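subagent[fold] <- orchestrator: predict structure for attached chain, return tokens only, no commentary.
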Amino acid sequence: VNGLEPGFFWDERAATLEEQVLMPIQDEVEMGMKLPDLEMKLANLPYYPSLFESAFGTTEVTRQRIARSLAQFVRSIESFGSKFDRSLAASASGDADNASRLTEVEERGRSLFVDGVGGVNEFACQMYHVPPTFNMETSHNIGLDLKYRDRGLGALNRKSNDPFTPSNDGKFRSSSLRNIARSAPYMHDGRFKTLDEVVAHYSDGVHPHPNLTLAFARRENNTKPTSGFGLTKQDQAALVAFLKTLTDEGLAKDPNFSDPFLRAAK
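subagent[fold] -> orchestrator:
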């Protein structure tokens, strides 16, 4: 991470996925385990040494090998079987009767997401969650608060990742929107319980923080930030409907990502 490239976690404190996967194991509010103890525990279990030998050539259990294994597993989780994906395939094939095509409401939500509010691309969600992964490529301040108890990326004391903002305070990394309907609660502190609450915030609840992302703070002659996109209730519902089309039901049922110990027991 060089100050502009995104890292992992809400505040980007982990530079690589290999670094990230070991942090929850050591964190006192999560697993609270020291890495030497983790290595010893796995080495003494009857099934892990042979798995490490298959993957790495020897039975030695090290934190580096644990990190590589976990990171590679996370990288293997790819989601491209949602209704949205099927609708793209249907459009490409010209199959007008395909049941995977988006409904009128979902299509309205897709238009808002891609084309922006009032057709203004600067206010388009797609600018910040880029298809097909729907990842946010950097951290942003979306006006959750005027004053943040958690400074987010600002706590790392890096140069601002945006030439239009004075600092990184209140900026947080966002996860991919794929399968977002399954990942409540939302925001870095879990303040929103539903997608409806999230979209309502973007519509009318944005606080005019100095580091507000450009989507909300159109800086034409230093004009003041808006309080959001000002969506109608119908458009808010349409956006939520579209976001739900990003759910990949097949991924949720894929045995490759199920509990391996339950599978072994069967």
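orchestrator: received. Logging for downstream: The first helix runs from residue 17 to 26. The chain has a mean pLDDT of 87.
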